[in-house]
Structure formats: C-alpha cells, structure tokens
Design brief:
Layout lengths: L2 E3 L6 E3 L3 E2 L13 H13 L4 E3 L8 H9 L8 E6 L1 E4 L2 E7 L3 H15 L4 E6 L8 H13 L3 E7 L3 H10 L4 E5 L6 H4 L2 H8 L2 E5 L31 H21 L3 H10 L14 H9 L7 H10 L12 H4 L4
Parallel strand pairs: 3-4, 4-5, 5-8, 8-9, 9-10, 10-11
Antiparallel strand pairs: 1-2, 6-7
Helix pairs in contact: 3-4, 4-5, 5-7, 8-9
C-alpha cells in the first residue's frame, strides 16, 4: 500500500482510507456485521491504516462496531472520528450542529469509550456550528490534544475562511469534505487551494458519489425503502437519468482501460494532489479490494483531460443533499 501525508508535516497514512458509515447507517439494507468486521480486518491486511467513523453514525453503533472489530489491533490503525453533527430522535431526518466547548468535552469521552481506546488519532468537528465562534470550538479541541486524548484536529465541510481562522488557534491537520467527479465544490470555493497553501491534508468523502460512480446503480428502484439516497435530489427523477448518462460515459472510458468505473473515479481523485486521501465507504470485502486496487492506477494527463471533458465541474444534476442538510454546510 502506498502512503501519503496529511499535509507536508502531517501524519503518514495509507493513500486510501476506509469510510465505515455504511456498515451501520444510511444504507441499512444488507448490513451484515460479520461481513463488516471481515471487511475491516481485510482492510488491515491490504495495508489500509486510515479508518473513518463518527459518533452520529447509528448513532453510536458504528464507533462501537469499530471498537469491537479492531480490539487488539490499535497500533496498526490511524483512527478518525467526528463530533458535532446532532440528530433528533423524534425527527430522524433532522440534523443540527453543536460546537459548544462543553459539548466537545462531553462528546470525546463517549467516543473514546465506544472505540475502546485512550486516544483518537484525528478528531473532526463534523459540521461547523454557526452559533459558536470556530475559535471557541477549536480551542476546546486543542485542550483535548494537550490532555493526550486526541493527536490531530480536523474540520469537515468548513469554508476556506473558517479553516483559516481555525488554523490560527491550533494547527488543523485535515479537512474532510465531499469531493468526486460529480461534486467539485472544493475546487470552486477555495477550500482545496487553502489546504495546499496551509499544508493541510484533504480527505474526500463519498469519492464514488454515494455509489453512483460505480456504474452499478441503474434506477432509483435499486434503493431499499430506507436508503436515504431515495430522498437525495441527485438520485431523483430526471436528475437520476441525466447523471446516469454521465456515469455511462465514464464506464466506457474505464472499459477501454480494462478497469472498473469505480477505480477510474478513485484514480481521478488521487491524481488531484498528493495531499488528498479519499475514504470510499464499503461494507463488503470485494468492493474494498476493488477500491484499494485503484491506488496503483496511474492516469496520464491526456486521460485526466478526457475524464474532465466527459464529466466537467458542475455537470451533475441536482443538489448533493436536501436543502435542510445543505444549511449545515458552509
């Protein structure tokens, strides 16, 4: 497994990580804890070191799963989790953000217990709380570093301006945001440029467009009744049909190279900079192995240009989240 650094002075991790959310939440049909644990163990065998979770996944059950699966293997893992995205039990689709210092201190204790560890390698604020100055939240996070409970700090879906402000309080090691062929926002809003300039690693989540870029999804009917993609604008009606046409073109290019569409899509993300470490999610070993193989796929400048021509920035139809969820993204 190749490795990359999260920023020039940051920690070294596997060039591709594993997003663990789908093992416990949001894509619930087909969840198989035995297979999920086997997938986590297989990831370690393949040299994956970066494992990504959050307290909100489940909620809590994903951290508990990782705690059980990775017991006795802690030294092999760079463990990332998140706090600050809050769900209302009475309104499952509702989301809120909490960046209060007292909440930071409370949240980390729960994550440490569920993960069965005495420290978290990378602790992200999952969503920026607009009611709390970022300086206060990051200040509380920095206290966790000094206490030895956290090694490195990160933000998720924060703006370039917020990232600048946070970095002045305490070094930010990584910024996590959605980034893929069909979500190019970080190129346009200054986030990627700011990460490069400040020496901050960039961790793209959903680098396969929530599975759409794999080419396996052909109809909205492919989703289970409780799959949240049924309610996502990009997976609905005419948007689905338009986006499917784009993905089919990527699939044709992948076939010419003799690789999977997912591998081509991941190779494109990896080619955007050495400080990028994508975390495609899967709950099955066969897809994990396909994703990891993308690390060895080198794309020429001509191939990258061809992919950009097929799937340029802004080409995807529909918003990436509902309006309510988008309000939590800076």
């Amino acid at each position: 497994m190749k490795t990359r650094r999260l920023g020039p002075q940051g920690p070294s991790v596997s060039a591709i990580g594993l997003g663990c959310m789908g093992m416990s939440d949001f894509y619930t049909t087909g969840i198989d804890e035995k297979e999920s644990i086997a997938t986590l163990h297989r990831a370690l065998e393949l040299g994956v070191t970066l494992f990504d979770t959050a307290d909100v996944y489940g909620p809590h059950t994903n951290e508990e799963l990782l705690g059980r699966a990775l017991k006795g293997k802690r030294e092999q893992i760079f463990l990332a989790t998140k706090f600050g995205l809050v769900r209302n039990p009475d309104q499952p689709a509702s989301r809120g953000a909490d960046g209060r210092p007292e909440y930071v201190r409370q949240a980390v204790e729960g994550s440490l217990k569920r993960l069965g560890t005495d420290h978290i390698d990378l602790y992200y604020q999952h969503r920026v709380d607009p009611s709390v100055p970022i300086e206060e939240t990051v200040g509380a996070m920095a206290e966790l570093v000094r206490a030895g409970k956290v090694r490195y700090l990160g933000l998720s879906e924060a703006s370039a301006e917020t990232l600048e402000r946070a970095h002045k309080v305490h070094p930010i090691t990584a910024l996590q945001s959605e980034y893929s062929l069909w979500t190019r926002d970080p190129e346009e809003n200054g986030v990627l440029d700011t990460c490069r300039r400040l020496g901050i690693g960039f961790v793209p989540y959903s680098p396969l467009g929530r599975g759409f870029l794999t080419g396996a999804l052909k109809s909205p009917d492919d989703f289970a009744e409780d799959d949240y993609r049924r309610f996502s604008p990009r997976f609905s009606g005419e948007n689905f049909a338009r986006n499917l046409q784009l993905v089919e073109k990527v699939g044709e290019l992948a076939a010419e190279r003799g690789v999977k569409p997912s591998q081509l899509a991941l190779a494109w993300v990896l080619a955007q900079g050495e400080h990028l470490v994508p975390i495609p999610g899967t709950k099955q070993r066969k897809y994990l192995e396909e994703n990891v193989a993308a690390v060895a796929l080198e794309l020429s400048p001509a191939e990258l240009a061809e992919i950009d021509a097929i799937f340029p920035a802004g080409a995807a139809a529909g918003g990436r989240y509902s309006e309510e969820v988008m309000r939590l993204i800076q």
